[in-house]
Task: inverse folding
């Protein structure tokens, strides 16, 4: 087990290095930040000074060398815009996104598993058809549209909820609801399909022959077997949110890592881009590891 | 009229499918008493399992529909009870075990938990259930019961898994045990042990045992009475020995006649000259595991050599190693004087058409998206020098006739055929390359007895007409007895005994061969009774 984790960490570290190289050079292709930060009539002298200050005068390869050297000392550089350590800025945004992702995915998981399992118990029944209908709509509706319609209805017309920002619990409701819909539809479909297979299996027949009532048949005998493919999709969807729920965070002015990243790219705030990418990469690595561990926990036939 | 423990009266069950309504069983009537064993005998599709599924409330409705009849348990009609009332009976009063214990045990829970659950759902306190589970595991002969409690189904062998199923089914001392093909997936020696265990437990508890099987041997071994089913109807029923000795219905007669292992064994022929295939100290190692430990034998032209052995004996490994489907670890395979294992891929390619293979499961070995014509003629695409394309159509038609199918079937797809027909297609495909040797790996094991007999007859006819040789790999001894010239008995990667078929079956020398024969079941209840006694007195069944 320890060896497995070690091997996985090693492989991820190698991809991370590749990613850093790629992003470092690609982000430099977007242009010179000087033009963005200085007034349009700034003198050449001011420009040179700005470039000197942020190390933009050196050849690219020297800038890269310096960046890597700093990285090795856990120095992720400074945000040009906010004039404070990039990592500090990123972790602040990440904390918001992580909270959003955890709450949303917990709700999605519980709801999709319970409803999907019940739908699978009577395939083609009324409950199954209703849930299939709504989950398909949910899985296919674009989130920016839902977000805007949500704002129009609940914030503008009914005035029940704030349009954007953070602060009170009411601020969380719209972003979470919008982020909830698509993963919910998708995971519900996976749960349903996987449960149908599990419930038609031979061991469920045995359970029926033992006289086990329907509820434990679904949630004890069926569900644990049906969870493996579901976990993969849950992980995938959670990664999507962690990576930055860019659209939703932007629309709701939510200060998460997705909005931060978009702003950083628009403002050529290179250090912040790189730090944000590193943080989400590590988060995704940890999540994949958790998924692998969940696999082994659920299925005794899987051992690492 | 005395009340029976369980009585099925005029039961009819339909299944409504997209292709129309199928009557699975029609007006089936039988009964079971305490302490007796009733066998329901039938081939696939006969509806033999349907009444058991009805008793256990396992039929999905829809698509199933019970159109008539009643199922009386101690005089009460199960079909009139609520689901909840039936759940109270299931497991507690009427329990069931199934054919394939691996898929019927939940893979993600420990066996201890699963056996305990049988009791806890019927309101036995957890600590009592646990104590009883230990007792049961000990009773059915699971080694080291304390440790076994915390293990998962995949950590046991096939025979042990069936013992676990039995332990679970008997946890609450049910009045009736339904066993649906309980030993079909097991090796002969293990089958004998499991049947013996069932009998013992029946004597202890006095339960009624309902056994569903396709195997006349199992009926002869254990049943008091038998019900013979064909196409959803009971064609004959009565005392098991009586039905075997004086079958009244033509179907029963056919079934008994088709049972292998009754005819004369082949005469011993002296075959001189160069062997077609000579296997010399063939070895196959997978890591530290030695699947083949230096096996040697040869096949003469026109000869049928059978390899028999239980699972894990290395018999299929041998077939794969000879064809270099898995590269062997050592030894020689001499084909017409040359070592196959030293050939370049190109030379091997030319030889491969001489040695063809027919596999166990024709459903899996035929590509479902190719027509029969495409399946058979594909061989000529790979080996274009055999036949000019203009003649393909005629040759496919010829081959189909040769294997007992009709030429117009060439346009159809595999799923449009029955299991036996599919195996004929697989044989036609093998014949397309005009091979000298056909390796049959359990080629008839998945087929019903009557179909099995037909396929064996086909193979034998082809041998006579075309001078083919066979390497016939099988676990089923009676089939081998009818078909083979020589028999090789394998155990744990080694050849234990080799000899002419008459010698192996009538005068086996090695204890393992003797045990194997003693454990195999004969359809004749009298022969079987003698065998049982011999087995008991000599203790031949290996533990």
Result:
């Amino acid at each position: 087990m320890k060896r497995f984790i070690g091997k996985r960490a090693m492989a991820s570290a190698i991809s991370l290095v590749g990613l850093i190289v790629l992003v470092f050079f690609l982000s430099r292709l977007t242009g010179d930040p000087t033009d963005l930060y200085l007034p349009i009539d700034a003198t050449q002298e001011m420009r040179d000074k700005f470039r000197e200050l942020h190390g933009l005068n050196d050849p690219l390869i020297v800038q890269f060398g310096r960046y890597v050297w700093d990285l090795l000392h856990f120095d992720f550089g400074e945000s040009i815009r906010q004039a404070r350590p990039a990592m500090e800025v990123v972790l602040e945004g990440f904390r918001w996104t992580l909270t959003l992702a955890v709450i949303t995915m917990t709700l999605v998981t519980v709801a999709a598993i319970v409803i999907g399992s019940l739908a699978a118990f009577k395939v083609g029944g009324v409950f199954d058809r209703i849930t299939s209908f709504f989950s398909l709509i949910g899985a296919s509706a674009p989130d920016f549209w839902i977000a805007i319609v949500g704002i129009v209805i609940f914030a503008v017309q009914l005035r029940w909820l704030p349009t954007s920002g953070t602060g009170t619990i009411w601020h969380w409701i719209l972003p979470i609801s919008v982020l909830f819909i698509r993963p919910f539809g998708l995971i519900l479909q996976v749960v349903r399909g996987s449960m149908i297979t599990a419930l038609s299996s031979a061991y469920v027949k045995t359970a029926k022959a033992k006289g086990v009532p329907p509820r434990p048949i679904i949630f004890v005998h069926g569900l644990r077997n049906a969870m493996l493919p579901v976990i993969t999709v849950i992980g995938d969807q959670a990664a999507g949110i962690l990576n930055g729920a860019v659209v939703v965070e932007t629309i709701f002015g939510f200060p998460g890592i997705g909005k931060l990243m978009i702003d950083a790219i628009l403002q050529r705030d290179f250090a912040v881009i790189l730090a944000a990418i590193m943080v989400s990469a590590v988060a995704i690595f940890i999540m994949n590891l958790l998924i692998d561990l969940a696999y082994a926990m659920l299925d005794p036939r899987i051992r690492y | 009229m005395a009340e029976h423990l369980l009585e099925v009266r005029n039961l009819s069950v339909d299944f409504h499918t997209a292709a129309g309504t199928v009557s699975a069983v029609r007006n089936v009537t039988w009964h079971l008493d305490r302490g007796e064993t009733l066998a329901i005998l039938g081939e696939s599709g006969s509806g033999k399992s349907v009444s058991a599924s009805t008793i256990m409330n396992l039929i999905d409705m829809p698509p199933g529909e019970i159109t008539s009849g009643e199922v009386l348990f101690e005089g009460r009609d199960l079909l009139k009870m609520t689901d909840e009332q039936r759940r109270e009976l299931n497991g507690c009063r009427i329990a069931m075990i199934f054919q394939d214990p691996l898929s019927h045990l939940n893979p993600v829970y420990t066996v201890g938990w699963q056996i305990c659950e049988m009791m806890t759902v019927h309101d036995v306190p957890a600590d009592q259930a646990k104590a009883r589970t230990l007792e049961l595991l000990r009773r059915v002969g699971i080694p080291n019961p304390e440790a076994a409690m915390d293990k998962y189904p995949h950590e046991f062998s096939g025979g042990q898994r069936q013992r676990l199923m039995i332990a679970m089914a008997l946890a609450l001392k049910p009045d009736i045990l339904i066993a649906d093909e309980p030993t079909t997936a097991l090796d002969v020696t293990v089958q004998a042990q499991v049947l013996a265990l069932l009998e013992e437990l029946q004597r202890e508890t006095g339960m009624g045992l309902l056994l569903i099987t396709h195997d006349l041997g199992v009926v002869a071994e254990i049943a008091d009475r038998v019900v013979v089913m064909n196409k959803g109807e009971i064609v004959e029923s009565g005392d098991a020995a009586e039905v075997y000795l004086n079958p009244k219905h033509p179907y029963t007669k056919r079934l008994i006649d088709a049972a292998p292992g009754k005819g004369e064994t082949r005469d011993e022929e002296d075959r001189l000259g160069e062997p077609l295939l000579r296997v010399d100290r063939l070895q196959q190692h997978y890591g530290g595991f030695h699947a083949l430990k230096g096996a040697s034998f040869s096949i003469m032209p026109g000869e049928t050599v059978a390899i028999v052995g239980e699972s894990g004996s290395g018999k299929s490994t041998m077939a794969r190693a000879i064809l270099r489907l898995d590269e062997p670890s050592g030894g020689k395979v001499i084909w017409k004087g040359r070592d196959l294992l030293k050939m370049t891929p190109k030379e091997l390619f030319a030889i491969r058409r001489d040695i063809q293979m027919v596999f166990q499961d024709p459903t899996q070995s035929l590509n479902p998206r190719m027509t029969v014509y495409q399946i058979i003629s594909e061989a000529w695409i790979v080996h274009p020098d055999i036949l000019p394309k203009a003649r393909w159509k005629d040759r496919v038609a010829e081959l189909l006739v040769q294997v007992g199918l009709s030429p117009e079937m060439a346009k159809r797809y595999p799923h449009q055929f029955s299991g036996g027909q599919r195996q004929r297609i697989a044989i036609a495909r093998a014949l397309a390359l005009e091979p000298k040797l056909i390796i049959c790996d359990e080629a008839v094991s998945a087929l019903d007895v009557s179909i099995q007999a037909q396929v064996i007859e086909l193979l034998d006819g082809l041998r006579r007409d075309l001078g083919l040789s066979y390497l016939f790999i099988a676990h089923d001894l009676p089939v081998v007895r009818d078909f083979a010239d020589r028999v090789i008995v394998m155990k744990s990667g080694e050849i234990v005994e080799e000899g002419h078929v008459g010698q192996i079956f009538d005068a086996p020398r090695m204890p393992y061969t003797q045990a194997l024969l003693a454990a195999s079941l004969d359809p004749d209840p009298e022969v079987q009774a003698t065998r049982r006694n011999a087995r008991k007195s000599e203790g031949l069944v290996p533990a």
About this structure: Chain B has three domains: 34-53+86-258, 274-354+436-509, 368-434. The two ends of chain B are 45 Å apart (CA to CA). The domain at 34-53+86-258 of chain B is CATH 3.40.50.300 (Rossmann fold). The longest strand of chain B covers residues 20-32.
